[in-house]
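Allow me, if you will, to draw on your knowledge of protein folds for a short while. The matter concerns a single protein, recorded as an amino acid sequence and a row of backbone structure tokens. Could you please explain, in whatever detail you think fit, how the structure tokens follow from the sequence? I remain grateful for any guidance, and I place the record below:

…
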Amino acid sequence: MRVRTLLILGALALLCAACTHSVAGQEDSTRDFSFDIVQKVDPPIVGGATRIDVPFEITIGNKTDAPVTVNRIAVQSMEVGDYQIPYRPRNFERVIPPGGKEKFEFWANAIVTDPILGTRAPLTLRSMVDFDVPGGKRHEVFVRGINGRVGFGVARPIGE
């Protein structure tokens, strides 16, 4: 039984190593764009509310030699838990010059079921950005960890 437990733990460790994701404050990057998203504040949960607006700051960099237009940004949490954000798109129509960066204020309505953790709980966000670029349109997707605190637990059956 111990060998099986060790094999399972080893497999979990490899899975965790393979499934790393970015943490806020560490910029993601593609060939043409850089991306960062941070949660600006942890709004307090008042009166047992289950929905609350949460402010994010998104920074997008243009690494190309031509101006690009950010048409739309959408965010969505990738897991269901005590804090989640349903799909939320927002139109911008803002030009980023070649080699430039722009900050976007983005408010998303969150569903919070744990008033103690509130919006401080770790969360993985998928952010989708639609661009107008010379010669057409681009769609980029970035996956980021928000609130940087990550927990990992391993359980085993009682009696082992």
